[in-house]
UniProtKB/TrEMBL annotation:
Pro residues bias locations: 376-386
Pfam families tied to this protein: HEAT_2
Disordered: region residues: 366-396, 687-743
Taxonomic source organism: Streptomyces caledonius
Name of protein: HEAT repeat domain-containing protein
Composition skew (Basic and acidic residues), residue ranges: 727-743
């Protein structure tokens, strides 16, 4: 079943791909993480978001490179929120360090900025200053994002970074007027300290200039109250919703999406009100993004009503490519796109800043058409004329050139289409559809409706690609020519040698390709070179338990080499089982003591995974010498009360360090369950009542007197056995006359 679903993720039909992804996510098919991550590159935004959402539940470290790539190359807020959620689910506490490392290695300034924007609310002011002190490549960009409030700080303020900002020549944006600032601060403080206050909320919403979103973040937990206010005050609903979307931007938690879903009617009324008031297009796009996010949570009976409201909206300027649109929202609601939906989206695209580009993007999204492999403005050199592909390419170019001429008048287009029905050698349906979409923007206005009719005949809206006849009669693909340097051949010694040579290449992408390929080999010997390259900083790969276990093959001498990065060794050691960490404790302690903070913090995290008693034993000599700083590694752990630790506590109290001594948790022996005392008593009773061992000689049956004594004083089991033997030994029907039986 999983193999079939993985195959369907590469299908042409968008709905098939989406349902296959949802099924893999429902099954938590972590083994399909690579196939799911590949769908992040799908041209349809709905598929991108679905794949990112599935990786939240079924993602593995193999999906991290794809998630980081799209986080650095896409600015859609809904998609970015899901990408961040998936990365946090996979990486856990390593999320900030991984994103920073990806930004460090990025050569594209825009990609570095988008990656760092994913750290909103994650880094503290001290962490940003530490990056600047280390002369990190990302420090200037990160400081600029923090100064402009595009990245919020987890703790600290922008004023704490004033020295670093001045050193890089970065100025913070001018603050709003003092009067506006003071009034907004009073209302925000009233809401946060005294609880929900409707008059204060209305004053804040009715302000002409809203406070910056970073100042409104403290009001985010009151989202249900703001939505109720928008529903109860129709006169100011648009302003309240505008403020609500500023204080609660994407990404949204499950609880926040549930609150939005409960107020769908309020959101729809607000969307209609924004259309009537001709408000800013940004507010409309934000509301559409919220509705698209909550669409999967809406009841089935409510979705057609929402789709009807969306279809009734007037045209408005379209957002930048990748922003939510009415088409993606309708698909999320399960509606089948019709010609009127396409016309509405095209009308909105014409109102944007770049109509030609926006119209082309709408048509590609509507018909799920691939982008042309070559730009019309940049002709590619033709293939050799001897090949059949050259002939087909030449005919395709001739057809495209004739189409560009035909789109000038309706009669010319009609004549051109009539000729296409009679002659062979025209391009396939996918190429024709792509060419028609590219010609639409430059076509005459009276020709555009006929072009859409032609596109619809080739590919109906929201239908799978109509290519059955083409694929049935298409010639089979030529057999692949196998080359000796192919990397997808069966594992062999020759392939291993090629991968090892690639691992030493000067190009980073070749080293990364070789490392990823070697990590898929099951042999531990294949992972060891990758680990060495990782520890030397030549490659960046996710560290899992299998790669970490290869660390035991490296000796202490090799780990102490100058080229080894200590923080990476500590990172790998942190993935080991606590019992496997003990041989590395002396080395980690040395690095924790002498290395700079960037390396010592990683060593400290690895040392805290070592059992406390083992770590205390290794610290014995240092504690005897009075190096109390090492006690930071022991605080908070339950330690066995040993004479050495008791002596340490006495010395601390003698030096007046009672606070440090109180932080050491000493236990008297191994910790035991609450019912251990009762179990011990039962065990001792069983030992006392155990019958004496039988003599080595032949056993003699008990006498009559012994059986009588046992029947009077034994436990129920022995009494029953004694009475049975007495009954078996009695002969005759008369009762036993022995006086002892009556007493």
């Amino acid at each position: 079943m999983s193999a079939t679903l993985i195959t369907l993720t590469a299908a042409q039909d968008i709905q098939t791909v989406r349902q296959a992804l949802l099924a893999l996510g429902h099954a938590r098919a972590r083994w399909a993480s690579t196939a799911i991550a590949a769908c992040l590159g799908h041209p349809n935004m709905n598929i991108k978001k679905t794949a990112a959402g599935v990786l939240v539940r079924a993602g593995t470290p193999t999906a991290v490179p794809a998630l980081l790539f799209w986080l650095g190359h896409h600015d859609n807020p809904g998609l970015r929120g899901t990408l961040v959620e998936a990365l946090r689910a996979i990486l856990g506490d390593a999320y900030p360090a991984t994103v920073l490392a990806a930004a460090e290695h990025s050569e594209d300034g825009r990609a570095r900025e988008l990656l760092l924007a994913g750290l909103d609310g994650t880094l503290s002011a001290r962490s940003v200053l530490a990056l600047d002190d280390q002369a990190s490549r990302v420090a200037p960009t990160l400081l600029a994002l923090v100064a402009t409030r595009h990245v919020g700080l987890a703790s600290g303020t922008v004023e704490d970074l004033s020295t670093a900002l001045a050193r890089h020549g970065i100025t913070t944006p001018a603050a709003p007027s003092q009067g506006t600032d003071r009034g907004a601060d009073v209302d925000i403080r009233s809401l946060t300290t005294e609880g929900w206050n409707q008059p204060a909320a209305l004053r804040l919403a009715e302000r002409h200039e809203l406070p910056h979103p970073t100042r409104l973040r403290v009001l985010r937990p009151m989202l249900p109250d703001w939505l109720r206010l928008a529903g109860s005050e129709p006169a100011v609903r648009a302003r309240v919703l505008r403020l609500t979307l500023r204080l609660c931007p994407a990404p949204w938690t499950t609880e926040e999406l549930t609150a939005f879903a409960r107020c769908t009617r309020v959101l729809l009324d607000g969307l209609e009100g924004l259309a009537e008031a001709e408000a800013e297009a940004e507010d409309r796009h934000d509301l559409i993004a919220v509705l698209e996010a909550v669409a999967p949570m809406l009841p089935t009976v409510l979705k057609p009503a929402v789709a009807e409201v969306v279809r009734a909206l007037p045209a408005a300027p379209a957002g930048s490519p990748g922003r939510p649109s009415t088409l993606t929202l309708l698909r999320s609601l399960g509606a089948v796109l019709v010609r009127a939906d396409l016309e509405q989206a095209l009308a909105s695209a014409r109102l944007g800043a770049d109509p030609r580009k926006a119209e082309t993007a709408v048509l590609r999204d509507s018909f799920a058409a691939p982008q042309s492999p070559q730009s019309p403005q940049t002709p590619q050199p033709p293939p050799p004329p001897q090949s059949g592909a050259a002939t087909a390419s030449a005919k395709s170019e001739e057809w495209r050139a004739a189409l560009d001429v035909a789109v000038r008048t309706p009669s010319a287009l009609e004549e051109f289409r009539r000729r296409c029905r009679k002659h062979d050698g025209i391009p396939g349906s996918r190429d024709r559809l792509t060419a028609l979409i590219e010609a639409y923007a430059s076509a005459a206005p009276e020709v555009r409706a006929a072009l859409i009719d032609w596109m619809t005949d080739i590919q109906p809206l929201d239908a799978p690609p109509w290519t059955i006849a083409e694929t049935t009669h298409a010639p089979p693909p030529r057999p692949r020519t196998v080359h000796i340097d192919d990397l997808d051949q069966p594992r062999s010694t020759a392939l291993r040698e090629r991968l090892l040579a690639m691992l030493q290449a000067s190009a980073p992408d070749r080293r990364h390709t070789a490392a990823v390929a070697l990590l898929e080999w099951p042999e531990p010997e294949a992972r060891l070179p990758v680990l060495r390259a990782f520890l030397h900083g030549r490659v960046d790969v996710p560290v899992d338990a299998d790669l970490a276990r290869a660390l035991s093959a490296l000796g202490e001498t090799e780990l102490r080499a100058d080229a080894i990065l200590h923080d990476r060794v500590a990172l790998v050691a942190g993935r080991l089982d606590p019992c496997d960490l003990e041989p590395l404790v002396p080395l980690l302690l040395e690095w924790w003591e002498h290395d700079p903070p960037s390396s010592s913090s990683a060593a400290g995290q690895a040392l805290r995974r070592v059992p406390g008693d083992v770590l205390a034993e290794h610290l014995g000599e240092r504690l005897d010498a009075g190096a109390w700083g090492f006690l930071d590694l022991l605080v908070g752990q339950s330690l066995l009360r040993t004479p050495a630790l008791q002596q340490t506590c006495r010395r601390l109290r003698g030096e007046g360090r009672d606070d440090l001594a109180d932080r050491l948790l000493l236990a008297d022996g191994p910790l035991r369950r609450p019912d251990s005392v009762r179990q011990d008593a039962a065990a001792m009773a069983a030992l006392r009542d155990r019958a004496p061992a039988a003599p080595t000689g032949a056993s003699q049956p008990p006498s009559r007197q012994e059986l009588l004594d046992l029947a009077r004083s034994g436990d129920p089991v022995r009494i029953r056995r004694a009475l049975t033997r007495l009954a078996e030994g009695h002969g005759g029907p008369d009762p036993d006359r022995d006086p002892a039986c009556g007493t």
